[in-house]
Amino acid sequence: MKYIIGNWKMNGNKQLLLEMLNAITQKNSKNQVILCVPYTMLQSGTDIVSMGAQNISTHEFGPYTGEISAEMVYESGARYVILGHSEVREYHNESDSDVYTKANIALKYGLTPIICVGETAQERDQGLTQKIIEQSLRKSLPDCLDKKIIIAYEPRWAIGRGITPSYDDISRVHLLIHTTVKSLGYQDFNILYGASVKPDNVMEIMSLKYVDGVLVGGASLKKDEFISIITNVK
Ligand code: PGA
Question: Alpha-carbon dihedral of residues 159, 160, 164, 170, nearest 10 degrees?
Fold first, then answer.
């Protein structure tokens, strides 16, 4: 079973969600489709489409105005949460240590964390991709080794730009993630690729070793494109 995860960011509305849920349901994919939508839509999960949040607090509860806890997300019906997305890292100064704290809390409250790692353009140009990814994994993965976690390789320079690394580069990073996570002792994990996934590149990306699914931003907001991606993932 593969994962096809849409990240709506701060986009979409209930009408689009309804249309998307209907279209996905009709496709009846054997793969796991998850929509990571704004908090106000999290209760819309179905038997076929699971919901995920795009962030949670580093705290379990308390006087943190404007934040949302893992428990609240779980109670809304969502079962997944994206952590460490580059936009949260950039606009909210989220660190690997924050991601580590959130990942532990997510697991405590029954959410599967989708932990994003990826290099910036500058790090890539300096040949630091592998180092940054490995470092990020070591600092941000949760303590519990036997609960399911999902890791997404999201090259930061490629997100939302319509460009992707070469397939060789994606393969190299996925092998590194697989080897690192395994050597750290995690028993149940999947590795997704995310950044500029489209209907016409998803098949090739999915054919690469250690790619268990895709995390889709822009194309997950266009019904026809997202359905084509779902159809193209065999
Ligand atoms: P993109 O976004 O597919 O629009 O590049 C991916 C993401 O931000 O997860």
Answer: 30
Atom of ligand 1 nearest to the CA of 159: 5
Single pTM value for the model: 0.97
CB distance 119 to 129 below 8 Å: yes
Q: Where are the alpha helices (DSSP H) in the chain?
A: 14-27, 70-75, 86-91, 96-108, 121-125, 129-140, 167-183, 202-206, 223-232
Q: Determine the Cα–Cα distance for residues 229 and 198; give it in Å rounded to an integer.
A: 7
Q: How far is CA 231 from the centre of its chain?
A: 19
Q: Which residue of 115, 159, 215 sits with most ligand 1 atoms within 8 Å of its CB, as the best mutation to test the pocket?
A: 159
- With the C-alpha atoms ordered 134, 97, 78, 144, is the resulting torsion angle positive or negative? positive
pLDDT digit string (tens) for 196-227?
Answer: 999 999 999 999 999 999 999 999 999 999 99
Q: How far apart are CA 96 and CA 140, in angstroms?
A: 5
The upper half-sphere exposure of residue 134, i.e. CA atoms within 13 Å in the direction of its Cβ, equals 10
CA separation for the pair 182, 75 (Å, rounded): 31
